[in-house]
Backbone:
């Protein structure tokens, strides 16, 4: 068992790779809570692949990873594992992202009983025509619920404006039309192709003795390893698709995302992520002249929210604001980026932003569910979460200025706007 | 974890939650005052004004710099309804000193900054709040009120409540009303602010790996606290003993149209009972009906009928109401409504198993056991206890739930009446 220790957050991470290829990580925490997540490296972007030992390319309908997440709870004895886990007083759930699917539960009591059920259901798919059919209406309502979320619409439109072919422009849940094509055979096919040990990770955080819990889990792992599935992703051109997209919805005030497509996927991702966190603070936080002016003029109520999203196949930086002054605020954001590019960053601003970002990384390690989901998401990006603390000092002002100049390029910028329905 | 409460002055309490489970310290100031149609909009405007600057840190811009310098401490304020009261919340979360790179005493700075923002606002020579902030903050409040339509789920929930209670007490919208905003003058708002901080119940919560005596010392020595006078708490006590209702003569049915793809159905129910152990029984009833994956709403409306993704019910303890909520295809309105009514009838007839009762209790108890494991949940729990004056320990709470019997649930079910059906559609 490998032990990673970090003196800044005062935490230890125990890591073991089982013979069958499954990775298990444990972070003991001082709490009565116990949290476990089992995740497969399979998400909405994985829609074309060569299954183990097959020469024909398999293409699956959009939304199938998410459909599988819903259906895995179904068991051969007629029970639904979500109900069984809930009866034990544990809080069970699952989620699907663009690159992974995760099954989890957290509790203060009954961990061992719940673990039994949990390890069992993730390793035993049971799909029938009836149980697959029954889920369609539920997922259709989930899709419709998202259709009414302006924040989801503005994000998906930004992705579609940015990416011509990259699978990130696919809605995680699919559409009513694509999920209509999903059946039990397709679900078994993806389960068998992607749910194998070396394509998965189990992360535990909370009140655990690492050695004991590892032994317990080892006993219950029955999945056999296979060779790797071969994923096929579309070639993505460097260019964006459309500079500007707009949609009307029933909302009170326009919502905007300004996105920058990042084609440089080779850079050290942790360093770049830290640099962009620091940069976001310097450019758009409440302590900037930029925000002070727009706030006092009544044009922005809250400062822009930013996010650097990246995986193995894409990367982009997003700036989100809500304002009635669409053109003006977009222009002010552009000006602010240009101004800092030209004048550089002051030492004082840099040090202050650095402290603020550091504090936020510390806060990330408060809650067991947050810790586990960070570790899982980082793992599938080939990142060790503790490295954020190791790399922190190496992100200096010059590097941040370099990232600023490289990333914010006009021709890779898209704007997505959701406007209120015209009266 | 240990919790201590001391009265700093009459009507002003300090609650210290000492715990070493987290990497952060949270300080939270709560001001509680009755919800009234005349003051609801002014209440909402106050946090908007206060966060703009204090005498010590005279602008939002400088406050933000200060917060970034103490490792990105997050300051926020908000408004919540708690029964017939409104609570103004101001809080600051900062990393504990042991994680600071140079051992800075972040907690002391955080507490002092927060007290300054809330009790020492920037004023002019007449003692009025800064007039320069007013126009923008009025606009911000107006935008916030209008943004209630953005989230269809919470919008339809709020609409059902306002149909049931009208424009008074719990029926008021927490951010107030656009038509009030224009008339508010800086003098009027300043007078109201002064009245509020000198007459309301104030609770200060501090959670983290803290020394209670040092925190109490810090507060007692603080100039802003010294300015506050003792007061008689003036707010409305809502709990299972104070609420009484009459059944409605006719169930109200409201349909509202908007440009939406999914319909939102909300049913508002009244709990009309003075049975013993009412609150715990209501919680168990609600869990059987619609709280959690084993509930009737989840199992029958979602899993069996595939009518919804989200199907649940929410208990509002302070007001003894239950709200059933689900997102459905618009054409399925009748089907969903009938199916929900069947669930309500089935509980009345006792058509639920002992396993259902067991599951509901397990679900509620595990939620309570979680309270001391999440820093913000813990604070919210104790705020609720303080305002309802219940001061129940978690163990007492759990035993009340364990004591609920099948006949209590059936008895209660027969005293729960439908009040309003609200539907948001296209």
Residues:
């Amino acid at each position: 068992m490998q032990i990673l220790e970090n003196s800044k957050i005062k935490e230890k991470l125990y890591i073991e790779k089982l013979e069958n290829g499954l990775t298990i990580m444990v972070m003991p925490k001082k709490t009565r809570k116990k949290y476990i997540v089992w995740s497969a490296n399979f998400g909405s972007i994985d829609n074309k692949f060569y299954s183990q030992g097959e020469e024909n390319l398999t293409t699956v309908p959009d939304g199938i990873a998410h459909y599988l997440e819903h259906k895995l709870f179904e068991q051969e004895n007629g029970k639904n594992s979500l109900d069984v886990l809930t009866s034990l007083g544990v809080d069970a759930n699952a989620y699907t992202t663009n690159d992974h699917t995760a099954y989890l539960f957290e509790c203060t009591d009954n961990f061992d009983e719940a673990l039994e059920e949990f390890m069992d259901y993730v390793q035993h798919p049971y799909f029938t025509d009836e149980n697959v059919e029954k889920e369609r209406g539920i997922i259709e309502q989930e899709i419709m619920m998202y259709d009414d979320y302006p924040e989801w619409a503005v994000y998906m439109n930004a992705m579609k404006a940015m990416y011509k072919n990259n699978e990130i422009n696919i809605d995680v849940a699919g559409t009513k039309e694509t999920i209509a094509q999903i059946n039990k055979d397709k679900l078994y096919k993806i389960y068998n192709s992607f749910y194998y040990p070396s394509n998965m990770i189990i992360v535990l955080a909370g009140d655990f003795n690492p050695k004991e819990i590892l032994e317990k889990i080892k006993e219950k792992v029955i999945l056999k390893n296979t060779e790797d599935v071969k994923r096929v992703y579309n070639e993505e051109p460097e260019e964006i698709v459309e500079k500007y997209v707009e949609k009307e919805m029933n909302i009170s005030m326009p919502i905007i995302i300004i996105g920058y497509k990042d084609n440089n996927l080779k850079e050290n991702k942790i360093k770049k992520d830290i640099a962009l966190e620091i940069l976001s603070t310097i450019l758009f936080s409440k302590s900037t002249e930029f925000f002070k002016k727009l706030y006092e003029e009544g044009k922005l109520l809250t400062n822009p929210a930013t996010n650097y999203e990246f995986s193995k196949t894409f990367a982009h930086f997003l700036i989100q604001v809500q304002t009635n002054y669409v053109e003006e605020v977009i222009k002010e954001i552009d000006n602010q980026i240009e101004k800092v590019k030209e004048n550089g960053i002051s030492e004082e601003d840099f040090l202050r932003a650095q402290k603020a970002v550091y504090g936020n990384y510390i806060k990330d390690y408060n809650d067991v569910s947050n810790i586990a989901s960070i570790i899982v998401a980082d793992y599938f990006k080939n990142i060790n979460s503790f490295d954020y603390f190791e790399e922190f000092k190496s992100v200096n002002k010059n590097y941040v200025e370099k990232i600023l100049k490289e990333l914010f390029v006009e021709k890779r910028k898209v704007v997505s706007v959701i406007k209120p329905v015209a009266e | 974890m240990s919790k201590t409460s001391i009265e700093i002055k009459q009507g002003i309490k300090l609650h210290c939650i000492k715990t070493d489970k987290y990497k952060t310290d949270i300080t939270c100031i709560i001001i509680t005052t009755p919800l009234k149609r005349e003051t609801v909009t002014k209440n909402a405007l106050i946090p908007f004004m206060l966060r703009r600057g204090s005498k010590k840190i005279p602008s939002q811009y400088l406050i933000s710099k200060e917060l970034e310098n103490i490792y990105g401490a997050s300051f926020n304020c908000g408004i919540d309804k708690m029964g017939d009261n409104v609570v103004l919340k101001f809080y600051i979360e900062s990393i504990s000193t042991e994680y600071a790179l140079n051992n800075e005493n972040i907690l002391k700075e955080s507490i002092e900054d927060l007290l300054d923002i809330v009790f020492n606002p920037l004023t002019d020579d007449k003692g009025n709040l800064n007039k320069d902030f007013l126009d923008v903050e009025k606009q911000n409040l107006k935008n916030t009120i209008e943004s209630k339509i953005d989230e269809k789920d919470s919008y339809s929930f709020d609409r059902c409540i306002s149909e049931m209670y009208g424009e008074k007490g719990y029926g008021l919208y927490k951010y107030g009303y656009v038509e009030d905003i224009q008339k508010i003058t800086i003098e009027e708002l300043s007078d109201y602010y002064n009245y509020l901080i000198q007459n309301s119940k104030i609770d200060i919560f501090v959670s983290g790996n803290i020394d209670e005596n040092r925190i109490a010392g810090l507060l007692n020595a603080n100039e802003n606290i010294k300015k506050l006078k003792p007061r008689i708490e003036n707010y409305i006590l809502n709990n299972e003993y104070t609420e009484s209702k009459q059944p409605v003569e006719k169930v109200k049915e409201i349909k509202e149209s908007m440009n939406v793809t999914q319909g939102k159905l909300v049913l508002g129910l009244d709990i009309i009972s003075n049975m013993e152990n009412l609150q715990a029984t209501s919680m168990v009833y609600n869990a059987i009906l619609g709280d959690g994956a084993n509930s009737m709403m989840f199992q029958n409306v979602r899993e069996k009928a595939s009518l919804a993704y989200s199907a649940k019910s929410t208990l509002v303890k302070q007001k003894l109401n239950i709200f059933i909520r689900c997102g459905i295809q618009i054409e399925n309105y009748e089907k969903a409504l009938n199916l929900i009514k069947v669930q309500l009838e089935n509980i009345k007839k006792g058509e639920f198993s002992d396993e259902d009762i067991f599951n509901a209790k397990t679900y509620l108890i595990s939620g309570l056991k979680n309270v001391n494991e999440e820093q913000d949940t813990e604070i919210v729990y104790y705020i609720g206890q303080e305002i309802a004056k219940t001061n129940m320990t978690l163990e007492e709470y759990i035993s009340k739930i364990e004591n609920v019997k099948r006949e209590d649930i059936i008895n209660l079910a027969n005293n729960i009446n439908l009040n309003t059906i609200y539907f948001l559609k296209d």
